[in-house]
Amino acid sequence: MIERYFNPLWRRILKFDWRFGLLLLLVVCITRFALVLDANVEANYSIIGYLMVASAVIPFVFLSRGGLREIGIRGAEDKIWLLYSPLLGIAAASLLFAVGYLLYGYGIENWFVYIGNSYNIPEGVVGRDKIIYFVIFALTGMTFSPIGEELFFRGIVHSSFKQSVGERAATVIDGVAFALTHLSHFGIVYTLMGWAFLPLPAFIWVVSMFLLSLIFNMCKRKSGSLLGAVLCHSGFNLGMIFYIIYYLN
């Protein structure tokens, strides 16, 4: 029975189905959306790190050992995909960088430019100092959000919807939720002039995040483990941070 995917504490009050997945999305994603928008104003993103940790912990709070295996916390079945996955992530970041640069250059409409502004890197940083910034942001970017988001979106949320609507529909649902959540990171932007909405750049960004989610799901499926999705996500973040620091800063 799928209820056995829960820890005993939750079995009598919860069902591992679309309603549970929707509850998680509403609580976590709305909270995150609001916190990211506030962080864009305050230029303080430390709270987002705590939220990523909380997202990673959620499966362990609710799920039994069998439930954790069900969502993909297990050894990879096809280990070659643990190599392919980060390379796919880097390739996706490279393509998204190229599209943003060709369309918008160094303007605020470029998603990587806007996200890079949140890094608060001083102007004129070169040489060893730039390497230090890159290493710091790369290490954090390759751990917190890949682990937190993949355990949440491609893990517990995806699997809960899969029990009710099947694999394909669950892939679309977690992808749409992932993409819309990232609208708070870019699309609704905060500048010295105040808040603004960038319709076309936001549309491209959200569609890109949805397609990226499909790639993460593919890496999970091909590898037989959430580790594939985590590594692909880490590769994407590594590529994004590289282009922000070395090409847009």
List keywords for this structure.
mainly alpha; two-stranded antiparallel ribbon; 249 residues
Structure description:
The protein has 249 residues and is mainly α. It has one domain. It contains eleven helices and two strands; from the N terminus they run αααααααααββαα. It has helices spanning 8-11, 18-42, 46-62, 65-70, 81-104, 111-117, 127-141, 144-165, 167-181, 199-223, 226-247; strands at 188-191, 194-197. It has a two-stranded antiparallel ribbon with strand order 1-2. Strand 1 and strand 2 form a beta hairpin. Helix 5 (81-104) packs antiparallel against helix 10.
Biggest pleated sheet: 2 strands, antiparallel
Total number of distinct structural domains: 1
DSSP helical segment count: 11
Estimate the strand proportion.
Answer: under 5%
Q: Please provide the ordered H/E string of secondary-structure elements.
A: HHHHHHHHHEEHH
- The overall pLDDT average reads 95
Please state how the strands of the largest beta sheet are arranged side by side.
1-2
Rounded to an integer in angstroms, the radius of gyration calculated over CA atoms is: 18 Å
Kindly state the percentage of residues in helix: over 70%
Extended strand count: 2
Structural classification: mainly alpha
The general outline is globular
Distance N terminus to C terminus?
A: 53 Å
Low-pLDDT segments: none
